[in-house]
Amino acid sequence: SSRAMDDTEEQESTKHLQHIEEMLLERLELEEAKREVDIADLKTFVNDAMAAMSTRIELLAGKLPRSQQDAVMTVLEDQCVSEALRAEQADRLSKSLDELHRNLSDGVRHLETEQQKLGEAVADLARETQQRTRQLGDAVTEIAQDV
Questions:
Q1: What would the pLDDT profile of 92-101 be if each residue is shown by its tens digit?
Q2: Engineering a disulfide at 64: which of 68, 75, 103, 144 sits with its beta carbon 3.0 to 4.6 angstroms away?
Q3: 125 touches 2 (CB < 8 A)
């Protein structure tokens, strides 16, 4: 009876840890997919912005006096720098997400190791409980025979 209870507790504990691990892996996969979409969106945005700026430069270059062309070029250069900074920030965020992914993977591996240790500890306790139960049964039998 106590062995069955120990097995049930061990199974429940294992199921709970497996559920946590599955949830963590699922969350990790979702974050990875979102990161990939965000990076693709950012690349598209930067490419579109660069193409639009190139078109604007070409249109303005032929229509404006030289002094205004310089002012427009300054504004467009500032916009390019701003876009480059956004791309750099996206790259840093991507690296940060990669680090988070590695840390989460390390956490999952640690959780698996701890789960294994817990399973071993529960098995050891179950064996010890069985041994003590037998010893107790033997002692009760000896006492009963002595009486």
A1: 888 888 888 8
A2: 68
A3: no
